[in-house]
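Hi R.,

As promised on Friday, here is the backbone we talked about, encoded as structure tokens. Could you run it through your design pipeline when you get a chance and send me back a sequence?
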């Protein structure tokens, strides 16, 4: 049906003085360029129509799926598919049957078609990952790691198909000879494979989720997990910076996950201060009057007073461990440690509670004739 276009180009070039092999070569080249230009025009028309339809429908009927696929350029890749198929079917009409130009064009268009389908699939899986990360049941899972491994698998299949097209052999023939090359593949994808295994370990053992607050001192990471992929974990620190921690490091080494604290809704207060040992003396009746249970020394009375004070505070949990204990004496005096839990996980409120407790301790010490040790 379109043979006349090729013939018209051939005659026009012949009139320009071209002949022989050069004439056929230039004819095939011009025909290919015209065919590809027509394909790109179809692509742009389909892309504009498809994206506008999706955007308009998304404004009227918002959808996480459409938004995610738009962001991942799924519809742009999809717009290439129909023109590619049309061009593939038109190639026999524009080129002589079984000529080198026809074979070359079919090879190139088949390679582009396979690659385009892979781009469509990977864009779809990325969009799926975005949607899953917004769902309550899966938002804390390492979805990006799974999407990456699926994308890698798709590209491996694509490479096999492209090589099969280039050598004009069945993919099964290529795969049969791949066994001897497996060691090289293992070496090339070593980090990816190890990263995938480590991601599975993190997920299966529930060691890490998106949104967890973690502390990894070795990498100066102290903040919220934003992304878990095959190679690394992205942590947004509380100062606004981004730290990248290798997944392998989180599996083989130690890190602190504050999720348990957040789930319980309380945060531990563990603070200590030093009492000058020379200020320890026998308790007076006035000191006994401040506490419910008499103690032998002013320090004992003070500890009992602090326990009572902490229990009375509404922002300190009475259901968790609450104690004021003495640590081993050292050259700085007698260490006194507070151990209790604040009824909040909000950082600012937690620091306020700690500050108020420590300030109260400093003003209460003279009431028991105790002196806070301070190096001079």
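Update: got your reply. Pasting your designed sequence below so it's all in one thread:
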């Amino acid at each position: 049906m379109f043979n006349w276009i090729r013939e018209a180009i051939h005659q026009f070039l012949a009139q320009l003085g071209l002949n022989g092999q050069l004439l056929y070569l230039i004819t095939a080249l011009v025909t290919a360029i015209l065919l590809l230009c027509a394909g790109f025009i179809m692509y742009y028309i389909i892309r504009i129509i498809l994206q506008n339809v999706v955007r308009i429908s998304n404004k009227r009927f918002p959808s996480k799926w459409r938004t995610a696929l738009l962001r991942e350029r799924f519809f742009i890749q999809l717009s290439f598919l129909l023109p590619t198929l049309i061009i593939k079917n038109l190639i026999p009409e524009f080129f002589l049957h079984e000529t080198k130009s026809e074979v070359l064009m079919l090879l190139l268009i088949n390679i582009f078609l396979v690659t385009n389908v892979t781009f469509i699939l990977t864009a779809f899986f990325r969009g799926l990952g975005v949607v899953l990360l917004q769902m309550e049941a899966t938002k804390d899972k390492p979805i990006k790691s799974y999407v990456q491994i699926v994308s890698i698998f798709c590209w491996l299949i694509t490479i096999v198909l492209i090589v099969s097209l280039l050598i004009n052999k069945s993919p099964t023939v290529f795969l049969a000879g791949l066994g001897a090359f497996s060691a090289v593949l293992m070496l090339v994808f070593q980090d990816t494979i190890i990263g995938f295994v480590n991601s599975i370990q993190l997920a299966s053992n529930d060691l890490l989720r998106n949104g967890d607050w973690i502390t990894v001192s070795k990498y100066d990471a102290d903040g919220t997990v934003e992304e878990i992929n095959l190679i690394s974990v992205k942590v947004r620190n509380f100062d606004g910076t981004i730290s990248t921690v290798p997944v392998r490091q989180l599996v083989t080494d130690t890190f602190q996950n504050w999720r348990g604290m957040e789930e319980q809704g309380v945060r531990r207060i563990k603070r200590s201060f030093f009492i000058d040992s020379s200020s320890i003396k026998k308790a007076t009746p006035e000191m006994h009057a401040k506490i419910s249970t008499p103690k032998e020394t002013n320090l004992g009375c003070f500890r009992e007073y602090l326990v009572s004070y902490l229990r009375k505070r509404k922002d300190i949990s009475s259901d968790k461990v609450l104690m004021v204990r003495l640590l081993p004496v050292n050259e700085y005096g007698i260490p006194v440690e507070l151990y209790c839990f604040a009824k909040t996980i909000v950082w600012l409120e937690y620091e306020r509670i700690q500050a108020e407790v420590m300030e109260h301790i400093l003003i209460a010490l003279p009431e028991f004739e105790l002196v806070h040790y301070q190096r001079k």
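One thing I noticed while checking it: The mean pLDDT is 82.

Thanks again,
M.
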